[in-house]
């Protein structure tokens, strides 16, 4: 097959490209330039899309012995990932930009261009497995990325390759060293790739400005003030800037963010309990179920997995949890599993506390 290997400049995508080439595929490496003003160097493990990353990807392609190109997708990335991220926070939701990048960039913009140029598949360094079109968790539970891939459609997954899904991360680094890849010990990028300093609140404030408003308790009593509701997320405990403790002395958590009246509501930890979730824009990786069915659901990247009953309702997905989950934030993904198999996903739109 003709395979386009997305090479970020990190160890995972380099080994994935090497494995695809070793398997006999005709591989071409491509580095996606996602920043219109890339920095020369990353800061430790923060950030990506730097000139350093591009050079590391090129050096890896040279070692593997495959052609290499840089594709400028900065405008598309800014529109579909960065602007979406800001808009979601402004609307009181908590987005996952990695998930959106897979949906809009790697398996839409990149894949569409690859297919138009005659490639058969896009290869990435994600830790997940494809088994006859079925998306499964990677064997390294600590690195599994099936959650952020669950927004991909069956048609997109039919043109995807994940060569690392059957291997632990430590073994990937050892393999990179054996192959002579200089990125073998390069730190993994983490946090949000386009916020290199890790200051999400500052990043949002620069784009949304200051918008002071009240912080209230569950009874509506004002207990503090914020500079912008967008800086908070459901389940947050630290950085609430509340001037006085709760009457019972217990910590407070963010329970709700209302952009309409610019209000952040806080309360005790147990008030975060959620029994029911409504998801929008569901994606099914097999035939759409006709009724309710039992499965498990993951509600955040690398989060817990919960027993549940899921039921399609028109263009929505209703999920009833067997036991309550805490800190479920609208804007995140709810990904359904049967064992290690991904069944589908939806974006969390609403949550509810349902009395026992």
Automatic annotation (TrEMBL):
The compartments listed are:
Cytoplasm
As recorded in UniProt, its EC number(s) are 2.8.1.13
**Site (Interaction with tRNA) residue list:** 126, 332
Region feature Interaction with tRNA, mapped onto this chain: 143-145
The record, for InterPro entries, names: MnmA-like, MnmA-like_C, MnmA-like_central, MnmA-like_central_sf, Rossmann-like_a/b/a_fold
Q: Quote the catalytic residue positions.
A: 101, 193
Which residues does the annotation say bind ATP? 6-13, 32, 125
- Record has Membrane as a keyword: no
Q: Which CDD domains does this one have?
A: MnmA_TRMU-like
tRNA-specific 2-thiouridylase MnmA-like central domain sequence ranges: 202-267
The reaction(s) annotated as catalysed by this protein in its Swiss-Prot or TrEMBL entry are:
S-sulfanyl-L-cysteinyl-[protein] + uridine(34) in tRNA + AH2 + ATP = 2-thiouridine(34) in tRNA + L-cysteinyl-[protein] + A + AMP + diphosphate + H(+)
For this UniProt record, the keywords arranged alphabetically read as follows:
ATP-binding, Cytoplasm, Disulfide bond, Nucleotide-binding, RNA-binding, Transferase, tRNA processing, tRNA-binding
Question: Record's superkingdom?
Answer: Bacteria
Q: Name one Pfam family in it.
A: tRNA_Me_trans_C
Domain spans labelled tRNA-specific 2-thiouridylase MnmA-like C-terminal: 275-348
For this UniProt entry, what is the primary localization, expressed as one broad class? cytoplasm
Q: Which family does it belong to?
A: Belongs to the MnmA/TRMU family.
Described function = Catalyzes the 2-thiolation of uridine at the wobble position (U34) of tRNA, leading to the formation of s(2)U34.
The protein depicted here goes by the name tRNA-specific 2-thiouridylase MnmA
* Organism the protein comes from: Actinomadura vinacea
